[in-house]
Amino acid sequence: MDTEVTILRKKMPKGAALKTEQAVNTARRTGLAVETSQKFGAATNKQHGTTLNTTKLDHETEELKHQSLDKDVSKLIMQGRQAKGWSQKELATRINEKPQVITDYEAGRGIPNQLVLGKIERAIEMKLRGKDKGKALLPPPGKK
Q1: What is the pTM of this model?
Q2: What are the pLDDT digits (tens) for 43-74?
Q3: pLDDT at residue 54, rounded to an integer
Q4: Helix (H/G/I), strand (E/B), else coil: 64
Q5: Cβ 124 vs Cβ 84: under 8 Å
Q6: CA-to-CA distance for 23 and 21, rounded, in angstroms?
Q7: Residues 72-94: pLDDT tens digits?
Q8: E strand or H helix at 75, and its extent?
Q9: For the CA atoms of 75, 79, 81, 87, what is the dihedral angle to 10 degrees?
Q10: Which of 107, 137, 140, 111 shows the shortest CA–CA distance to 124?
Q11: CA-based Rg of the chain, rounded to a whole angstrom?
Q12: Measured distance CA(52)–CA(55) in Å, rounded
């Protein structure tokens, strides 16, 4: 009597399937060697390391702040707007900015942006920059 023994097995898992917790536990139970290692910086959104010397940054004593609008410019914006009889919202609408921008500029909290200051100057017809602050803004000369 000839008997052939046939052994049926499942295919061995490949790739990512070997990394699951279930696969690792199964390998441990069967006595296989399991090596685990954790990647440095895994699952973080950091693209790059620090570019500056970190000890130099730790010893930095200078306090850095954003440049803010001068109080005299803030007052000039408020005076020019009130002379026209506009609310902050109306001025913001006329220069296509958010009302919060006008509020911040008048309170002196705004970070000066030359484009926004130029729009405000044209709207209230008053110079806000340079040596002629507070003087009337002359309309640009017509093209010939």
Answers
A1: 0.53
A2: 666 655 555 577 776 777 777 777 788 889 99
A3: 72
A4: coil
A5: yes
A6: 5
A7: 999 999 999 999 999 999 999 99
A8: helix 71-84
A9: 80
A10: 137
A11: 35
A12: 9
